[in-house]
């Protein structure tokens, strides 16, 4: 039964994180983009800190290394990623599905950064082809017109690509820092630090609470992002990361766009363009090429799990 539970949690995580792109899109009609992201993590950060206090013996970072982890998490994983993502999604040309597909490039970029920044790892020829496939997928999604490279749709999609890049780089840099910190503690303090940084960026961009238009949709969007996508989503993610491993949990990035497209279609009347589907397939192909060895190593265990399901 635990396998069924893990599979159910996996689908729940993909659904929550995929539909979060729709919630962002819906909420941006009522919030300035960066302030919206900051408010999301004000709530999520407090909730995660409360959970860390309950779950961890010492929920406070200690020493230079642990605070370095918090700094990377705050600036790249939370603030950098969400500032660029929310700004990109504020453009009408970027649908929920398109944003989710571009963000699904993160595992490919993470592997590329790891091979470049960690001396023991190097991209093979096949791995390089995989990375290029992923980048080509983003190009197909953005569809840049040489005569209109500064048009909103292209710039907005490149902002979302920048968000995926920030998250991937942050993930690799946390591996380079010689410090250990419970995941609950790192996430809680990174969320709080990232929220503070985003409030500063919002002030710099001239955004203020006066620009917020309160409505039922606005409150529901913020609550869904803070409670479901952030607090609950990360709890499910950490549980599955421990049980399934990094390769299997990375596949969430490739299931999430399906739920993003469905949510956008159901609630925002967004269509799924052929370019979105083609970009997703190219990014997924890139992931398979870059991660081929890890996936090959996982296949025997996955086969045993499937046989076990049949026996149950």
UniProtKB/TrEMBL annotation:
InterPro entries cross-referenced by the UniProt entry: AA-Vitamin_Transporters, EamA_dom, EmrE-like
Example of a GO cellular component annotation carried by this entry: membrane
Keywords: Membrane, Transmembrane, Transmembrane helix
Membrane topology qualifier: Multi-pass membrane protein
Transmembrane segments: 38-56, 68-87, 93-116, 123-142, 154-174, 186-206, 218-239, 251-268, 274-290
Keyword presence, Cytoplasm: no
Keyword Metal-binding: no
Main location: membrane
Subcellular location: Membrane
Domain EamA, chain residue ranges per copy: 9-141, 158-290
Protein name from the UniProt record: EamA/RhaT family transporter
Organism field: Haloplanus rallus
């Amino acid at each position: 039964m635990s396998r069924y539970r893990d599979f159910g949690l996996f689908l729940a995580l993909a659904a929550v994180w995929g539909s979060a792109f729709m919630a962002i899109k819906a909420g941006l009609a009522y919030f300035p983009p960066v302030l919206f992201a900051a408010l999301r993590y004000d709530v999520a950060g407090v909730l995660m800190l409360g959970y860390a206090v309950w779950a961890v013996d010492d929920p406070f970072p200690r020493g230079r290394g642990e605070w370095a982890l918090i700094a990377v998490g705050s600036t790249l994983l939370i603030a950098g990623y969400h500032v660029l993502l929310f700004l990109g999604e504020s453009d009408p040309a970027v649908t929920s599905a398109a944003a989710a597909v571009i963000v699904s490039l993160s595992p490919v970029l993470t592997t590329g950064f790891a091979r470049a920044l960690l001396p023991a790892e190097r991209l093979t020829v096949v791995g390089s082809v995989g990375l290029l496939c992923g980048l080509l997928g983003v190009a197909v999604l953005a569809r840049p017109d040489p005569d209109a490279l500064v048009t909103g749709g292209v710039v907005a999609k490149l902002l979302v690509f920048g968000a995926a890049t920030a998250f991937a780089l942050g993930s690799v840099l946390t591996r380079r820092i010689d410090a250990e910190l419970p995941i609950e503690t790192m996430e809680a303090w990174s969320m709080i630090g990232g929220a503070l940084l985003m409030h500063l960026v919002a002030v710099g961009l001239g955004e203020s609470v006066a620009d917020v238009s309160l409505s039922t949709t606005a409150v529901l969007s913020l609550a869904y992002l803070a409670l479901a996508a952030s607090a609950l989503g990360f709890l499910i993610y950490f549980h599955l990361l421990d049980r399934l491993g990094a390769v299997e949990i990375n596949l969430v990035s490739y299931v999430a766009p399906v739920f993003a497209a469905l949510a956008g279609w159901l609630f925002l009347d967004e269509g799924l363009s052929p370019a979105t589907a083609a970009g997703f397939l190219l990014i997924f192909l890139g992931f398979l090429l870059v991660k081929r060895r890890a996936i090959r190593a996982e296949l025997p265990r996955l086969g045993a799990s499937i046989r076990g399901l049949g026996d149950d």
